[in-house]
Every structure is written in structure tokens, then in C-alpha cells.
Amino acid sequence: MSTYPDLHLFINGEWRKTAHDLPVLNPATEEEIGRLPHAERRDLDDALEAAAQGFKVWSQVAPVDRANVLYKAASIMRERQEEIATAITAEHGKPLSQARLEVIRGCEFFEWDAGEATRTYGRVIPSAPGVRYIVHHQPIGTVAAFSPWNFPMSQPCRKVAGAIAAGCSIILKAAEETPAGALHIARALHDAGLPSGVLNLVFGTPSEISDHLIRHEEVRLVAFTGSTAVGRHLTTLAAQHMTPVLMELGGHAPVIVCEDTDVEAAALSGAVRKMRNAGQVCTSPTRFFVHESIFEQYTETFVRRAAETVVGNGVDAGVEMGPLANDRRIGALTDLVGDARDKGAEVMTGGSRLGDKGYFFKPTVLANVPDSARVMQEEPFGPLAIINPVASLSEAIEKANSVPYGLAAYGFTNRADYVDRMIEGIEAGNVSINTLEASLPETPFGGVKSSGYGREGGTEGLHNYMITKNVMHSLAIV
Asked: Which residue among 22, 35, 199, 398 is buried most deeply as judged by most CB within 10 Å?
């Protein structure tokens, strides 16, 4: 099995160590697996200067040539799938099978945006004779991007691919807890021939890096995936400099289960998907609103499958769910379960830490949770599901919309009128019917309300990384 990589910063095409580094831990064993160098101010200044020069070069490269670099990098990452996946499992804890799929997902983001690089069409607006009105799309400039720890490979891939496909340069601050995925992305792009300075990778104290980068005039876009609280803070910083933002923030995804659906299939699907990535997914199905006529059957099936989830070290065969990212998540989930229990919720299974080594938490299902419980409003970001009965679809939609978040939502039904009512009535950027898949490379992804601003993926995905320029050309001087 491949070893964990030696960690570096990547600035102006060169790998760099610093005097200050901190440990990276395996959350399944709590053992140190690497030392991560943390950027100092001079490293950030070097990255900004490199990105400025990189943008001058890359923005003048033909879209088809930008696409070819992305395609080649994706091919390299596919060849290195096992090496990358092993590193992700070591630093994150997710089962190796899920880590392998995440590598491929990251490659698919590269491949989709590579194609989109050649399709950022402008348009000609009808005008009077002798005059031309032309809409032009151009890369916005240097991007400061911040990616989270829950998907070490696919999340940074999404931002890097969008920026590079559009012709931008990018400074990526990836998660300090899970740095290997981003490092492998930088390696692949470097080996694919990306010019120096177009991609720069830094790690360090998040608040210091964000403050230093966002206030710099070289940065023309801030792209962030993470919590709503941090997203609001970064948006405030960016607003002080009139810098646009792309924000993919937290969720608290509802699942509406109607009385006409296949109860067993829907419950089994929900239980399996809820525990994917230990529930540490912004689109994770969490608040299940089940019609009262099928509530008992659905809950029984869901609880049975959740309790059967095989929890353990992600490198072990047959493991379905690994540990949480860190010990802070254990405390947060324990508090939410305790608060819900105190307010009358039923703990159907789980609800506590599993074992005394590694950050493992039992798959947890709460039922009949009152609206006053904190978990009804706060995203648990862990293997915790809420199942509550509802009397009607109208009630379910009302409860689905009762939180400040609107990233993903799901519905299970075979009735066309129910489908239409959910599509029209649910406040979310992504609504999925009879599936718990919320995002693909070819579909636009993003939230409403406190779940963010802007879209990644789909034909809309590169728009945030580009400016729209209107050109008015008169053939005669007027």
C-alpha cells in the first residue's frame, strides 16, 4: 500500500517547505501520518506575485489548449487513483472504496470543465446597420479559493478546474486536516504542463491566510466551500474591497417521503446514503419527513439498516463508514443528541461515541424530534438522521423550508402532482426526486438562502470565473 505523501506548499511551480509545520493525524488511529508546512506572510506574497504573472500568461492561452492541460491532468490522476485514494483514507478516514470514487469524481470535474472551456460563448445583439453590439466573456483574474476537509480531492478539483478552464490563475488554500488530495492535484497539473504561477497551493492558519489574500487587489474572486458562519465572514471581507464571491455553504437537507412510494426501498436508500462519508456532506439527507401512514414501517426499516452499518478503519475490507474528521465533531454530535433527548426525542439507535480510539461515532437515528430541539435547526454534519411524521405534503414542504438553509432537498413519490408541488414549493438550489444524488459535473450546483451564492458545474459553472464585457462598435465615427 502506498505511503502518505511528503507534504509541501506549491508556489510558482516549485515545492516549498517552511520553518513552521503541524501534524496531520489519521482520524481512525489518532496517529501522526505527516507534517504539513504552514505558509508565512512571505509565502503568501510570493503566491500572489506568481498568480499575477501566471494570469498574464494563462489568460492568453487558447481555450482548446487550456482544455488539453486539464484533460491530461485528469488522465494522470486516474492513473494514480490508488495512490491518491490511499492517502485520502489515511488522512480523512473514509472507506477506501469511497476514496477511490472521490478521485474519479474529481477527474470528472476536470474533464467537464475542460470541455466547457471551449464553449464559453458570447453573442451578437441585433443592432442598426453600421453598428455591432457584442457580448464577450473573459477570465476574471486571480482567484482565492478555499476548500473543506470533507472531500479532500473532489472539492478542490471543482474550484481548480473552473478557474483554470476559464483562464484564471488560482491560489488554493486547502484544508489543513486533509491536504493530500490538493497536493496530488497540484502534482498532476504540474506534470501535465500547467505554466508556473497559474496554480498555487498554500496551507496555514485559515483566518490569517484569508485576511491576507482577500484584501489584496490582485484577488478578483473569492471561492469558498464550507460553513455558513465562515462564508459570511469571508463575504464581509470581500465586500470591503468589492470583490465578488462564489459561496457553497452549509445545508440541512430535508427528505420528503410520500405515502405512495416504495417504503422499503426508500428507507434502505436513505439509511445507506445518510452514513456515506460519516454524514459529513453538505448535501447529506438529514431531516426525513415521512407521511404518518407509512411512518412506522419506514422508521423500522431505516433504523435496522442504519444499525447494521459496518463502522471501522477505512482501509479494512467491508467497512461502510469511517470515523469523524476530528474529536470536536464527537462533542458536537453528543451535545445535539443530548439536547434532543432532553426535549423528548426518541433515540432509536446510536447516539454516542463508538470505542475509545479513533473518532468513531455510532450511526444515529432520532425519531419524533420536537421543533425546539437544536438539531432541527443546526446541521449535525455527522451520521445522524431525524425521522418525523407528517400528515400531508403541504406540512412536509412547510417543515422542509423551516430552516435558513436551502442547498439540497429530496422527495420520494410516484405521483406527478406531488413531484410538481415539490419542485415548485421546496426552497433549495438542488431538488432530487426518487434519488439522493444532488450533484453531478454536468449539472449546476449551489444553494439559496444561507446556503450560498453562485453555481459550480454545468454550463453555468464557469460564469463566476469570468466577466461579461459588452462591446459597442460603430463602423463610422459618430
From this structure: 199
**Cβ 54 vs Cβ 169: under 8 Å:** yes
- pLDDT tens digits for 82-91? 999 999 999 9
Calculated CA dihedral for residues 341, 343, 348, 351, nearest 10 degrees: -30
| C-alpha distance from residue 69 to each of 65, 75, 441 (Å) | 7, 10, 18
Instruction: Output phi, psi for 54, to 5 deg.
Output: -65, -40
In whole angstroms, what is the distance from residue 435 CA to residue 258 CA?
14
List C-alpha distances in Å: 445 to 166, 212, 247, 278, 320: 17, 28, 11, 22, 26
Largest CA-CA distance found in the chain, in angstroms, rounded: 80
CA distance 459 to 453: 16
CATH number of 9-249+451-470: 3.40.605.10
C-alpha–C-alpha distance, residues 359 and 312, integer Å: 10
| Class of domain 253-440 (CATH, top level) | alpha beta
Residue the block writes with cell 488554500: 173
The domain segmentation of the chain, as residue ranges, is: 9-249+451-470, 253-440
| Band of pLDDT at residue 3, cut at 50, 70 and 90 | confident
Tell me, what's the pLDDT at 216?
97
Neighbours of 124 (CB within 10 A): 10
The catalytic residues are 248, 282
pLDDT of the residue at 2: 52
